[in-house]
Design goal:
357 residues; alpha/beta; six-stranded mixed beta sheet; 9% strand
């Protein structure tokens, strides 16, 4: 009899769940399961991209007004704005932008921003996307049950003039995680599991590539992002510096900035860090000697290898993993060829050589 009862009870509960579209709205449990899936996804991606093999430190500086909002205003909004949660204990928030230093990592910097809102700027190849991947992985590694799940979204497919940001985010979430498209019971905000997680602030949206939108949409996209933010809701956005500046200082119309956000701008890799990175994955450092002497100089290769992307390409081409290029290695000294007359030509050479490597 007890066995029959358990079978019947399981059938009854499954039937009730199916009729409701979703059983009890345990959003915290759904968020925990999603966090595990997202962590596995990006851990695998980090391994493919050799994100920590070796680790390349990233430097940045905080940008002050008019590119970013006045810091006292950011603190005032977080401490006394309508609908914002109670401030944390003293010593958690940065008291000025000088405290948003590189030391400690990007996840710790985000924790020191009162609003939890951050804009990451940098030139092409400056390492914005890789920094956001690190942010996602670091946040997931430190996440406690029920905390928001950081999720990385590419803005390239968003149409801010036609699509609500939250609706677009919910749609993107279901691409990799179809179960999040399941409906939720009547009376639950969001319409779907993805929408409910967003409405209950259990997702930390990390939006990559504002500059990948058409130039005419940059200001509108920033305005839509600011409009979509609820009090106390965190968000991270990345963009090329020129695109964000164009939106912040338009020749006509109102300036657009992500409301309440700190702004960090990535800096070039210094010569010592670049040299250590290139030598880390090779047993024959003499091969890199001519290139190392050019680092930190105005030479085309010295300028090109200040960008993390170009350093990563050079590592893949000239420091292959075991088993690759059994017929012989290409020599880094070819980066000093007189035919490579400027930085752009060195970058094109690295991009061309990457595919066969």
């Amino acid at each position: 009899i007890p066995g029959l009862y358990l079978v019947w009870a399981a059938y009854r509960d499954d039937r009730a769940d199916a009729e409701a579209g979703w059983g009890k709205p345990d959003l915290g449990g759904v968020a925990d399961e999603l966090a595990a899936a997202v962590r596995a996804q990006w851990a695998q991606e980090a391994a493919v991209r050799r994100l920590n093999d070796p680790f390349l430190p990233t430097r940045w500086v905080a940008t002050d007004p008019p590119m970013a909002e006045d810091w006292p205003s950011v603190i005032t909004l977080s401490a006394g704005g309508a609908g914002w949660p109670a401030p944390p204990p003293d010593g958690i928030w940065a008291t000025d932008t000088a405290q948003l230093a590189t030391e400690g990592g990007i996840s710790e910097v985000l924790s020191r921003i009162p609003t939890g809102r951050l804009v990451v700027l940098g030139e092409a190849g400056a390492g914005k996307t890789m920094l956001l991947v690190r942010l996602v992985l670091d946040r997931l590694a430190r996440r406690r049950p029920g905390d928001p799940v950081p999720m990385l979204f590419s803005l390239a497919s968003w149409s801010p003039a036609e699509e609500d940001l939250r609706g677009w985010l919910a749609g993107q979430m279901t691409v990799d995680h179809p179960a999040l498209g399941a409906p939720v019971p009547a009376g639950t905000l969001g319409g779907s599991r993805a929408g409910a997680l967003l409405e209950h602030r259990l997702i930390l949206p990390v939006l990559d590539g504002l500059d990948e939108l058409p130039e005419a949409r940059w200001s509108l996209a920033i305005a839509r992002i600011s409009e979509a933010l609820y009090p106390g809701e965190a968000m991270v956005v990345s963009s090329r510096t020129a695109a964000y500046k164009a939106a912040a200082f338009p020749p006509q119309g109102a300036p657009a900035k992500v409301r309440g956000a700190a702004v960090l701008e990535l800096r070039p890799v210094d010569a010592a860090t670049a040299g250590k990175y290139l030598l880390n994955a090779t047993a024959d450092g003499h091969r890199w000697g001519p290139v190392l002497r050019a680092l930190g100089t105005p030479a085309p290769v010295g300028r090109a290898l200040t960008a993390p992307l170009m350093l990563a390409l050079a590592r893949e081409i000239y420091n292959p993993v075991p088993g690759q290029h059994p017929g012989g290695l290409r020599e880094p000294a070819e980066l000093l060829s007189p035919a490579l007359e400027n930085r752009e030509m060195v970058e094109e050479h690295l991009l061309d050589a990457f595919i066969p490597a």
